[in-house]
Design brief:
The complex is a heterotrimer of chains A (414), B (252) and C (332). By secondary structure, chain B is α/β, with parallel strands linked by helices. The chains are: A mainly alpha (414), B alpha/beta (252), C alpha/beta (332).
Chain lengths: 414, 252, 332
């Protein structure tokens, strides 16, 4: 049985995380991730003004104020970019600091007011106060998350187009600027709803971390949205669960820490795009190259006196290839285990029949490529792939036959 | 009247990029736009399409403004204009060409997919349809953009340096495509970077260097004099271009 | 030639500005120094004679919280004008001094604050000011053995809720004022004695009233952990959502544990505070309701700040009475 309060916070942070993951995906792909950060900071004066104008009990007033002031901030960024020479990152920085500074000044003023100054809990808008989530808050959060979901589902192709190639979108007749504004509006909605939960400083993390982590797992936008939404949900849920069981653990920061772990794990361990996978791939690739070089060297050493087969010393192989004997030893051992080479008592190697066939195959493939690229240099970038052993798989039969004929004429076809 | 560019000036913070351009196109043709770097060739295309604001002047396409005629326009932007790390596949990008006919909220269906695959086949990329675009070579990326433009089923195509930095195979594909489009009676305006092939590819040429130096049929307009006026004292290029002209004349 | 002139002309304004700023700073410092240098004091002397007031009356005195201001005002009477930095409803744990506040502190001849890290974010400023003028942390004058420890060498600063303990801070205020302004020392001693009696009476009142709550209902649940001294002095069990300082965010586990506790013990009411956001307490109420236990919000207690000046709750005596009557009514 989950405690009621935990359940409320769990539902709230999960929905918030999911919504943030969805919308954050587009923000991150657009390179606008920091706009979420700017928004969080720009919302502060709105919160203060909402409090001043409409009184302490109105959470709605403060959230609407936050949203309006956040949107104003975005418009100022856009205006600065369009009307002056200031670039986007500087414009964001300016808005972020000016608005946040104004917000701090206002909050300080409110603090000193004789009536109910600190009751607004304005400091909690900077750092968040997820543990005290009320049932009423859930209403706002689910509305925002639902809006995000509906928008993304309904306008998936429009958002994708505008984010990928805005110029093309405009030529095709789409209102790219309005769609952009809609996306930013959704970002600000998520930011504002997220303020009471994780605070202005951390809300950017909610938008960025799930999307950035999701990027490592897929090459398709649709899947990335699903993964980002799920990561966001897990972030919120796990963060809440941990905070519910550990004393004095502030929910907001723990959520962000969970997100950071998700991101770190993705960056390292995601298949194909993760750092570990790429490193393994790289190691394998280099080993392959080494093997190919070795077999080619074997063949070339034997070729002059073929069909007589002579034993080969490691040093000869090292001399022919660019590898040291130490580096070759592993490949040679592998070949030994596969019965492609026999190691003689004097330390030299003798290829078996199978080994000879292997050497011939590798050399043939290499020479076909070499020949092809010499004859058709303009097709180099289209066809040449280092990891394809044989030209057969990439080139058509006729071309291969031609190349073979040419090589045979030179006496170089294995 | 296909295209009418009247008195167009485009400026970036008071510095003119295009100055008083007057251009008309009466018949469907293949048009090459040439000029030195920074001459405003890309900007001309963007100005016609409404992607950059005009400081002055007016553009009409088939008698109407560009916004009204967007269904008839096909666009191939420069390769650098997108982030190729974006999580979309080649087919996804080509499908974007069909969005114009779909309207809001609708997703591409079977018919659009088949058409997109057909366009990919036309440019020789059919077996790369599922590949993420960042994994393609430069030429393949360019061909993806071309396929997208074809998918738009336009009447007039605007291409921004489609053959820059691509391999010979891609260049051949583009050339064949241009020929096909010409046969279908379409108009294609291409910003081209290689003077040596202008005479071979294009029947009309627009020579630009912030102002319109010359425009008209290639055989009469692409002369040594006009080249000098467009490029100034860049002798090397002129010699190559002159070579090409001479070679073409010889073959005729 | 003209370029060089232009450079200086441009920067002349900046240089002039800097010169003015430096001058103003020096003047302000000078003024403060002249106030604290007493008649007959020699520069460099470190005896208590150095800190003696020699200006106009009423003396400008600064205090941080309302409780301290009230205390000093009662002792100093008409001889001092007490400026209070933190108004009603202000949370002293989070309060950051603004430039205006620093000006007030600089103008004051003496400064009184609560201490024990209650004014958590003003520590550096107060330490700096202590070198220039009498700056007294009234709560720190209490014998450490009587304080509640909340960590190694850290004490709970909310001493004013134990009226008897708070009464002990009178002596340091009395002594400081008497030494600083020996001219009116007798008045200060008399006022302090009178106030001490009033506080003793208040203490007795509290004891009497709170004793009427039945034993099993003697639990006080508030937003932050400000009432331990209160609980110890008047025999109440004290529980809170946030810790001793509101700087720390409330944890979900604390709320869950409190909900269980409240439901299990059948507590009738919990309390919000005037200077702390009520969200956490409301979350507590919802949590209890979900368990089928109806707990009411017993009212708003004054914890780290007093009420509006001019109202009865704007004085220390009134504030304590208000708290006690609220608690008694809600829990009985």
């Amino acid at each position: 049985m989950i405690d009621y309060n935990t359940a409320v916070v769990l539902a709230g942070t999960s929905m918030l995380g999911a919504g943030a993951g969805l919308i954050g995906t587009f923000a991150v792909l657009r390179g606008r991730a920091l706009l979420g950060d700017a928004l969080g900071h720009a919302a502060l004066p709105g919160v203060c003004l909402g409090f001043l104008l409409l009184g302490r009990r109105s959470l709605a007033a403060m959230l609407v104020g936050a949203w309006l002031s956040g949107v104003l901030g975005i418009l100022v960024v856009a205006g600065l970019r369009r009307a002056t020479r200031i670039k986007e990152d500087a414009a964001i920085g300016i808005v972020l600091s000016v608005f946040f500074g104004a917000g701090l000044a206002l909050s300080r003023y409110i603090q000193t007011q004789a009536t109910q100054g600190s009751k607004a809990g304005l400091d909690s808008y900077i750092f968040g106060k997820a543990a005290g989530m009320l049932q009423g808050d859930l209403l706002w959060i689910s509305a925002a998350a639902l809006a995000a979901l509906l928008a993304v589902v309904a306008l998936f192709k429009e958002f994708r187009l505008v984010t990928f190639d805005g110029g093309f979108a405009r030529v095709q007749g789409w209102p790219a600027a309005s769609l952009d504004l809609l996306l930013m509006g959704l970002v600000s909605l998520i930011v504002v709803i997220g303020l009471p939960a994780v605070g202005a400083v951390l809300v950017a993390a909610l938008l960025i971390l799930p999307a950035a982590a999701a990027r490592f797992w897929t090459e398709r936008l649709g899947m990335m949205l699903v993964v980002a939404g799920s990561f966001g949900l897990v972030m919120g849920a796990a963060g809440t669960a941990i905070s519910a069981h550990v004393s004095r653990a502030p929910t907001g920061p723990i959520i962000v820490l969970v997100g950071t772990c998700l991101f770190g794990a993705s960056a390292l361990f995601a298949p194909r795009r993760g750092a570990v996978a790429r490193w393994i791939d790289h190691v394998r690739f280099r080993r392959r190259l080494r093997g190919q070089a070795m077999w080619r060297a074997v063949y070339e050493l034997i070729e002059p006196r073929f069909p007589a087969i002579r034993p080969i010393a490691i040093d000869e192989l090292a001399h022919r290839t660019s590898y040291t004997p130490a580096q070759l030893r592993r490949v040679l051992r592998q070949a030994e285990m596969n019965d492609l080479l026999i190691r003689r008592p004097d330390g030299r190697y003798l290829p078996t029949a199978a080994g000879l066939a292997q050497a011939a195959r590798v050399t043939r493939g290499y020479r076909l490529w070499e020949r092809f690229l010499t004859e058709q240099p303009e097709l180099t970038s289209t066809f040449a792939r280092l990891d394809v052993e044989s030209a057969d798989s990439a080139l058509s039969h006729e071309i291969v036959a031609e190349l073979e004929a040419a090589l045979r004429a030179e006496g170089r076809l294995p | 009247m296909i295209l009418d560019v009247h008195n167009v000036t485009v400026a970036y913070h008071r510095k003119p990029v295009l100055w008083d351009i007057d251009l008309t196109l009466q018949r469907p043709s293949l048009v090459g736009i040439v000029g030195p770097n920074g001459a405003g060739k890309s900007t001309l295309i963007k100005a016609i399409l409404g992607l950059v604001p005009l400081a002055s002047g007016r553009v009409t396409l088939f008698g109407q403004s560009c916004q009204k005629q967007r269904r008839l326009i096909g666009y191939v932007p420069q390769r650098e204009s997108v982030d190729w790390d974006f999580p979309v596949s080649v087919l996804d990008v080509v499908l974007m060409g069909t969005y114009g006919g779909l309207g809001w909220f609708r997703r591409p269906r079977r018919a659009q997919r088949d058409w997109a695959l057909e366009c990919l086949r036309r440019v020789g990329l059919a077996d790369l349809a599922g590949r993420q675009i960042g994994q393609l070579s430069g030429g393949q990326q360019q061909r993806t953009f071309l396929a997208r433009a074809i998918a738009q089923r336009a009447e007039i195509y605007f291409m921004d340096e489609p053959m820059a930095g691509v391999d010979a195979a891609t260049e051949r594909v583009v050339f064949e495509l241009l020929g096909e489009l010409r046969e279908q009676g379409k108009t294609v305006l291409v910003v081209h970077h290689d003077l040596r092939t202008v005479a071979e590819y294009f029947e009309q040429v627009v020579m630009l260097n912030m102002r319109l130096v010359a425009a008209g049929p290639t055989c009469t307009t692409f002369t040594h004099d006009n080249l000098a006026k467009t490029y100034g004292g860049r002798l090397g290029i002129l010699d190559d271009a002159a070579e090409a002209l001479a070679a073409r004349e010889r073959s005729v | 030639m003209s370029q060089k002139h232009g450079y200086w002309r441009q920067n002349y304004g900046l240089v002039a500005l800097l010169a003015c700023a430096a001058g103003c700073g020096a003047t302000a410092n000078g003024a403060a120094k002249s106030h604290s240098r007493g008649v007959g004091a020699v520069a460099g002397e470190t005896s208590t004679a150095k800190h003696q007031y020699s200006g106009d009356y009423p003396m400008p005195v600064a205090a941080t919280t309302g409780m301290v201001a009230d205390l000093v005002a009662r002792v100093a009477g008409r001889h001092a004008a007490v400026t209070q930095l933190m108004g009603a409803g202000v949370d002293p744990h989070l309060y950051k001094a603004s430039t205006g506040d620093m000006a007030k502190l600089n103008r004051a001849a003496a400064i009184f604050y609560s201490g024990l890290h209650l004014e958590g974010k003003m520590g550096d400023s107060l330490a700096r000011l202590a070198r220039k003028k009498p700056t007294v942390a009234v709560a720190e004058s209490i014998n450490r053995g009587k304080l509640l420890e909340v960590g190694s060498d850290r004490y709970d600063p909310h001493v004013w809720f134990d009226v008897a303990l708070w009464s002990e801070t009178l002596s340091v205020v009395e002594k400081t004022l008497a030494e600083f302004d020996p001219v009116h020392a007798d008045d200060y001693h008399a006022a302090a004695a009178k106030y001490r009696d009033e506080l003793a009476e208040l203490d007795e009142h509290c004891r009497r009233e709170l004793a009427t709550i039945p034993a099993e209902r003697r639990v006080l649940v508030t937003a932050h952990d400000a009432f331990h001294y209160f609980g110890r002095a008047y025999d109440l069990e004290v529980k809170a959502i946030q810790g001793v300082s509101t700087q720390s965010e409330a944890g979900l586990k604390e709320i869950n544990d409190l909900v269980s506790f409240i439901a299990r013990r059948g507590i009738k009411a919990v309390f919000v505070e005037s200077s702390v956001s009520e969200r956490n307490v409301l979350a507590l109420v919802e949590g209890c309701r979900a368990r089928g236990h109806q707990v009411a919000v017993g009212g708003e207690l004054f914890s780290d700040a007093m009420g509006k000046p001019g109202t009865p709750e704007g004085t220390y005596l009134g504030m304590v009475r208000h708290n006690v009557s609220l608690i008694v009514k809600a829990l009985k």
